[in-house]
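Record 1 of the preview.
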Amino acid sequence: MTSKPVRREDDGTLAIDLWLRCDGVFDTDVALHLTPAEADLLHAQLCYALDDESAALVVPEAKRPECRKGGATTRRR
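->
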C-alpha cells in the first residue's frame, strides 16, 4: 500500500495505488480500480476481517458492519 490517497477517477471508479511484492521483494506498483459498489463490498469485507470474523462473499447492506464509527456516515459527491 502506498501513502497516496484513494481517488475518484473521471469514469467514476475509485483508484487505489498499490505496491506489489513477490516473496517480500518489490515487483511493481499498480492502481486498483473499483466501482463504488465494489469498493463498498471491499469495505464491508475488510471490516469483518479487522474484527476477526468471516466475511460472506456477498453481504447484504442490512447485515454489513458499521465500521465508520466516529466518522462521517454520509458520502461526499
